Amino acid sequence: MIALATASQKGGVGKTTVCINLGHALARRGWNVLLVDTDPQGGIGLSLSKSTRKKKGFYDYLVKGGEIRTFILPTRLPEFSILPCGQPEEFLRRHDLNGSEQRLRDLLKQAELIGYDCVILDTAAGLTGLSEVAVRVSDWVVIPQQAEPLAIRSVPLLLETLARFRTEGAPVRFAGLLLTMLMESQPASAKVAKELRQMLPAQLLFTQAIPRDPLFLEASALGLPLSLLRKNPPPSALLFDQLAAELEERIGLQQSKDQVESHASLLD
Ligand SMILES: Nc1ncnc2c1ncn2[C@@H]1O[C@H](COP(=O)(O)OP(=O)(O)OP(=O)(O)O)[C@@H](O)[C@H]1O
Ligand SMILES: [Mg+2]
What CATH number matches the domain at 2-260, 1.10.760.10, 1.10.10.10, 3.40.50.1980, 3.40.50.300? Predict the structure, then answer.
């Protein structure tokens, strides 16, 4: 099983949107995906349905432990499940992270035993506090990045922070920087995308970028991945299939899928 976190220094760059759409794309491709909302603002719960806001979830588990399967919500797609953020108040009142890292590791172990192939951790903005812990315990991190001039300065700093986590013993590897809300037709946005592609080695930047598309706003207001917004998925939804394929390649998810398939054919 692979644990993948999304993270960013800045808020509102598209982390939650990427988690929902990428998670759903991976699930459509046959992976058993658990999407975990570690953001106390509950971006996933907000986005997916109003009733999930009142349910117990990740933060209840973080405070009291227990079996995560009791908090997991199934979706219409059997391969895609969600652990909503739950009720973060008690955790936030405590003001300390003691034991959180171990709890997160136990969560990942439980997810593996349940049979998930991939756990996606959506985080609150910033690489501190619980978001830092989520990144540190993950195998991989994806950094969504808006194509804006500040990126040229902030990306190297971010890479240094991730490198420090690794020297401190965290297993987390950088899956790639993902350009989001790209506006190819706007010279400023296109220029930054071009500069980032020149500045960073190809393996650090996903080939697939996510364009700015008002349909994402519409989809998140309805609590849907974009692929479910229309009968025929809009072009931006299909990009997430490309992204999922690229991610599989980058993090070696393909390999374990092949193993599962050959195992299945042995049983036939
Ligand atoms: N590619 C896109 N095109 C247009 N709008 C987008 C796109 N991606 C995300 N959005 C919209 O931008 C807003 C912020 O996106 P999102 O919530 O995914 O960001 P975030 O990084 O998770 O934010 P936060 O740091 O607050 O958790 C949302 O309203 C979302 O619908
Ligand atoms: Mg979010």
Answer: 3.40.50.300
